[in-house]
Design a protein that fits this description.
606 residues, mainly beta, Jelly Rolls, Beta-galactosidase, Chain A, domain 5, 3 domains, 8-stranded antiparallel β-sheet, globular
């Protein structure tokens, strides 16, 4: 690893996911003037390629005019990698274009693709095409891979990208024996690529041919953008190994708590890998494997065990996975910090349920290596998940179900029992809580997974199939009273649900009564990009307002445009005469809009 990253960082890098510090540009070999370290960034959705920043540390910003191209504007890391997991947040200016090259050679595209219905390889999250100048015009570009869905957010919003990359393999003579593979790419929480094999470097690569090790490379000559929270897991260590495996088998209705030392084993032997094939009977058995596990590097090791019935796993005499009963479709997991070297290994399994198939699988991941299997291929069984029951929305589509939501990672999951989800052919969808007149969540991608609702007995719930932005589940309408909390339910408001009506395009208008007034709530898709919401209140009571957003922060980006919850989504007001209020209550901020002429109108951009 080249100079520039501190020795402490290099030491820790192989042990677990670690950040690339953005206090300065010392983690990069190149230091072009267009890249700088800042404290925060913002981009206006109405201004092409404009990115503004504030002083500080923690954010990597590229301010670059369109039309100035060249490798001198790129940022290249000191870090060189083979197999790698990469995770980061990025923000694009309007109309901006960039890319991240794994090993300097394989580009994952960053592009302002907001609202595009049918993405190509050149859109956000796409794997860029390869290029051959010797081919005829129109055929020079090949092997580009479009994302499954366009889940790109609006410019100026923070987006989250995860890449799991497997480097090409070479033999002892340097000949390539396996292609590079993108194991998966996730954009804004949605898997957009899986197991995409690359026959060679994409267009604009650092080297013409594949390499075993190469840097991360950030394109900087196609537009302005910002990047933060760069996390890497560099898989540059050999995996641990099992050796000296010996087994003993027992039969009969022995309990999992039986002292096997008091019983003579029915069979003994040695094995290269773990397997239940050592058994002569498929039920009423117990077996024990013992051996040595060699940990090549000190650090944390995670064990995942699949075994029918009762089982446990011990390392150095301590149970890493405790004894418990599972079906073959369930997994047990446990982690332990191990010093480099050999450790005693014991695995016990007991099954007395004839309806279950035997199964034994053990997977281990550790410092500097991805999860590997230590069992024979025939020993583990495939998961017993059912075929999904999916609902698409080729036309405007409504579906009633329970909906489970969490406002954020710290919140408890809440079940909304009178939810209705509304899907559109624009691939923009939302869920509405009929009990509160609340717009619960919005998302991009496919519509609903109804498997939990309709499979077997079902639990009545469905799940969004896209990149979800949770908006909250409080009443929209209320009265702001100083620092008091907003209405979190319908108590005291006189709320009465009145159902909904459909227009000729099957778009619903929700109706209810609250605060002594009749209310209509109409939500529609605009330009395949965002939702517009129009709430009308007949004879509204004095002081009535709408809380249109709440989150950790609300920032005014420009006139009528507000970024919510750390620039997770926007609220946009179209009426310049409306005077919104940002207030702080109980550690969060809220955006309140008074009713003008009994109407509340705003857009949700995400």
């Amino acid at each position: 690893m080249a100079a520039g990253i501190t020795s402490a960082f290099m030491t820790q890098l192989s042990f677990a996911q670690q950040p690339i510090a953005l206090n300065d540009l010392s983690a990069f070999t190149t230091k072009p003037e267009n890249w700088k370290i800042v404290g925060n960034a913002s981009a206006d959705i109405s201004k092409d390629n404009e990115l503004s920043t504030t002083p500080g540390k923690g954010v990597l910003a590229n301010i670059h005019a369109h039309g100035k191209y060249g490798s001198q504007y790129e940022l290249i890391t000191n870090l060189k990698h083979g197999d790698l997991d990469l995770e980061l947040d990025f923000m694009l200016a309007k109309g901006s274009n960039s890319g991240i090259y794994l090993q300097g050679n394989y580009e994952v595209q960053l592009f302002d693709s907001w609202g595009k219905k049918s993405p190509r390889f050149s859109d956000c999250g796409g794997i860029y095409e390869r290029w051959n100048d010797s081919k005829p015009e129109g055929e020079k570009g090949y092997e580009g891979y479009a994302p499954r869905y366009n889940v790109a957010k609006a410019p100026g919003l923070w987006q989250h990208l995860e890449i799991s990359y497997q480097a090409p393999r070479f033999d002892a003579n340097g000949k390539k024996i396996a292609n590079a593979v993108f194991l998966y790419i996730k954009l804004n929480g949605v898997t957009i690529h899986e197991n995409v094999e690359q026959s060679g470097p994409t267009r604009g690569s650092l080297t013409a041919e594949d390499v075993a090790m190469g840097p991360l490379r950030f394109q900087g000559d196609h537009g302005s953008l910002a990047i933060k929270n760069i996390m890497i897991n560099n898989f540059d260590k050999k995996p641990g190994t099992l050796s000296g495996l010996a087994y003993k088998t027992y039969y009969g209705g022995l309990l999992e708590t039986e002292d096997l030392s008091k019983h003579k084993p029915a069979g003994t032997g040695k094995s290269e890998k773990l397997s239940w094939d050592i058994l002569k009977e498929n039920n009423n058995y117990s077996f024990v494997y013992t051996g040595k596990y060699n940990a090549p590097t000190e650090g944390n090791y995670t064990f995942k065990l699949q075994a029918s019935g009762n089982a446990y796993l011990s390392i150095d005499g301590k149970k890493i996975i405790g004894p418990e009963w599972k079906t073959p479709n369930e997994f047990r997991t446990g982690s332990v910090n191990l010093k480099a070297g050999d450790h005693t290994f014991e695995l016990f399994s007991n099954k007395r349920d004839g309806w279950m198939k035997p199964a034994l699988g053990l997977w281990i991941s550790g410092p500097g290596f991805r999860e590997v299997a230590l069992h024979s291929k025939s020993s583990a069984v495939a998961g017993g998940s059912s075929d999904p029951i999916l609902i698409n929305a080729p036309t405007n589509t409504l579906m009633r179900s329970f909906m489970d939501v969490k406002k954020d990672a710290k919140s408890k999951r809440e079940r909304v029992v009178h939810a209705i989800s509304v899907g559109s052919p624009s691939n923009l969808h939302y869920t509405y809580d009929l009990d509160k007149g609340a717009l619960l969540q919005v998302w991009r991608g496919d519509f609903l997974d109804a498997t939990p609702m309709w499979h077997d007995r079902g639990d009545g719930s469905s799940r969004p199939r896209g990149s979800v932005t949770v908006l909250g589940n409080d009443m929209l309408l209320g009265k702001a009273d100083g620092s008091s909390k907003w209405n979190s339910d319908t108590t005291g408001s006189g709320f009465r649900q009145r159902g909904y009506i459909l227009n000729d395009s099957d778009i619903p208008t929700f109706q209810y009564e609250a605060f002594g007034s009749k209310v209509t709530d109409y939500i529609t898709v605009v330009n395949n990009q965002y939702f517009e919401r129009i709430v009308k209140v007949l004879n509204p009571t004095k002081g009535l307002a709408g809380r249109v957003a709440a989150g950790s922060s609300i920032e005014k980006v420009s006139d009528g445009l507000y970024a919510v919850d750390g620039k997770s989504y926007y609220i946009q007001l179209t009426d310049k005469n409306v005077k919104p209020e940002i207030r702080s209550v109980s550690g969060q901020q809220e955006l309140l809009i008074p009713l003008q002429g009994g109407e509340l109108k705003y857009a949700i951009l995400f």
